[in-house]
Amino acid sequence: MRKRLSIEEYIEGIKSQNRFVLSRAITLVESELASDNALASELIEALLPLTGNSIRIGITGVPGVGKSTFIEAFGNLVTSLGKKLAVLAIDPSSQRTGGSIMGDKTRMETLGRNPLAFIRPSPAGSSLGGVSRKTRESMLLCEAAGFEVILIETVGVGQSETAVSNMVDFFLLLMLAGAGDELQGIKKGIMEMADAVVITKADGDNAPKAHLAKAEYQSALHLFPPSETGWQAQVLTCSALENKGLQEIWELIMQYQCLLQSNHSFQQKRQAQNIAWMHEVIKQSLENQFYNHFLIKKLIKEKEDSIKEGKQHSVKAAIELLELYANR
Amino acid sequence: MRKRLSIEEYIEGIKSQNRFVLSRAITLVESELASDNALASELIEALLPLTGNSIRIGITGVPGVGKSTFIEAFGNLVTSLGKKLAVLAIDPSSQRTGGSIMGDKTRMETLGRNPLAFIRPSPAGSSLGGVSRKTRESMLLCEAAGFEVILIETVGVGQSETAVSNMVDFFLLLMLAGAGDELQGIKKGIMEMADAVVITKADGDNAPKAHLAKAEYQSALHLFPPSETGWQAQVLTCSALENKGLQEIWELIMQYQCLLQSNHSFQQKRQAQNIAWMHEVIKQSLENQFYNHFLIKKLIKEKEDSIKEGKQHSVKAAIELLELYANR
C-alpha cells in the first residue's frame, strides 16, 4: 500500500486539477477503513465550495444494451465540445472482490486516451451509506478537480439505479429495440425514474424497429405524470456505430438543465438530494449497528423462521428484538 | 372511554365472529398508547392461526375516480356470492384529527346495511410501524373474525400506496378515462405496483373514451416486465352505475389467486411481506428513537440548513449527529 497523503496534499492536488492526486483521493473514498472514511469526509467538506459545477448524468441499461459503446461515443462528443468529462461506474458485482466491470475489459479505448476524459470504476462498497457513498463522494472530488460533465454508469438490474437516480441531475435509461423489457431484465420502477429513454443500436436493419420502439415508449411515458420539476421524459434513438443521435441527446440534457434552472428546481433538487443523503447515512448506520450486534445476529434468522411458519406476529417479533437491543 | 376488554374476551369474541368485539379490538389496534399496542400484539399473536384465509385486495385511485361507488358495487357483488367482506380505509388526512374519510360522508349506504359486509375506516397513525401497522393488524383481526375478502382502500396520492401494496395480495388501481395521469394526480411508481388497472365510469358518452384508455394502458403495461409471480398486469373497464365489468374484475382476481397458488408464489409473497413487516417495524423504531431524541431534535434543522447552503458535507453532518447520539 502506498502512503496516504496529508489532507493538505489532497486539497492542493485536487485544486490544481492533478489527476494523480484525484485518483488517490478516490481510492481514499473507496477505502473500507473507518479512519479513511473520516479523512474522506473532512476532505470533501474542505472542497465543498468547489463542487456542484457539473451536470451529473446517470446512465443505466442491462448488459448487452451497448453502454460502453454509448459512453465512449457520447463521451467523445462531449469532450469535442471542449468539456472535461469524468466517467464513474458503479459495479455491483465487484462488492466482494474489489474488481470492476472496467478492469476486466479493454473498453472505452479511445475515450481512455482522450486528454479531457477521466474514467474510473467505483466498486460498490458495503460500508456506511452503501453503494452510493463512494460514488457520490468520488463525484464531488471530480467536480472539485474541474470536471464539467460527470457520467455515472450502472448496470440496470436493481438497487443501484435508485441510488444513482438520487445523486444525479439527469437519469438516462438505455434500451434495446425489439426485446420486451422482460427480456431486457429491467426491474420495475426503473423506467419511471428515467428523464430520457434512449433506444440504442438504431442502425442498419435494426433502425425501423428502433423507431417503432421509440414511438411505443414515448406513448407509454406520456401516460406517466411529469416529474415535480415539470420535465416530461423523452425517448430518443441513437447509433454509436453510425454516430447518430448523440448530439440530440446532449441537446436534450441541455434543455433539461435550462428548464430546471429557469424554474429553480435544479438547485432545489440537489439540495433535497444532499439532505436526503444525510438522512440515508443516518438510517443506514442505525440499521447496521442493530443488525450487526451479536445478539441480533444470533436471533434474527430464528425470528424470520417463526414468522414464515406463522408462529409469530411480525410486530411482536420486532418488539422482542428491539427490547433486547435496548437493554444490551 | 369504554373499559378495555381482557385479552380472553377479545379472543373469544373474535373467534365467535362478534362484530362488536371486532370493532373494539380494532379500536385497541388503533390506539396510540404503548400499553394498548403491546396488548394488540399479544392479541394478534394469539389469533395468528385463524388469520390468512382471505383474499386481500388493495384499491387506490385519486379523489373523484369513484372509489366509494366502485367499492359499494363491487362489495355488493362479492357478498352476493356469499362471501363475507370487510372494507378497511386508510385515511391519511385523519392522522391528526382522528376523523376519517368515511366519517364525513354518507357513502356506501347499501353496503353498510349489508349483513355480510363490515366497513371500518382506519386512521393513519404515526406510531411504531407507521401507516401500515394499524391497517395490517385490523386486517388480521378481520380474518380471524371470519371475513373472506378484505378490501383496503387508500387515496392514490402518495406513500400509503406502497404500504398497502406491501400488505395485500392484489393491488387494484382505479383510473378515469380521458384525463392524463398528470391531471389525476397519480404519483410516479404507483402504476407499476398495480396488478390490475380499472378504468371507471365506462358508461354513456364516456364508454368509448374508457375503451380507448383501456387499450392505451394495456399496451403501456406490456412494456413493463411481469412481476416475479409471473402475473402480467391487466386493464379492465367498469361501470358501477350500469353494473358492468364488476364480475370480470372479480374473476380476474380469482385467476390471479389461482396462478399464484399454483406456482406457490401466493404463500411466498405473504411470507416475504410478513418478514419485511418485522424489519420495517425495527427500522421505523430505530429511526423514531433517533429523531425523537432531544439532542437530535435540537440540531437536525441546523444541519439540514448547513447542507442546503453548501456549508457542510452530508456524510460529515450525519457522522456528527450519530456520534452525539451514541454518546447520549
From TrEMBL, chains A, B:
It comes from Thermoflexibacter ruber. It comes from the Bacteria. Pfam families: MeaB. InterPro entries: GTPase_ArgK (IPR005129), P-loop_NTPase (IPR027417). One of its GO terms (cellular component) is cytoplasm. This is Methylmalonyl-CoA mutase metallochaperone MeaB. PANTHER family: METHYLMALONIC ACIDURIA TYPE A PROTEIN, MITOCHONDRIAL, METHYLMALONYL-COA MUTASE. Belongs to the SIMIBI class G3E GTPase family. ArgK/MeaB subfamily.
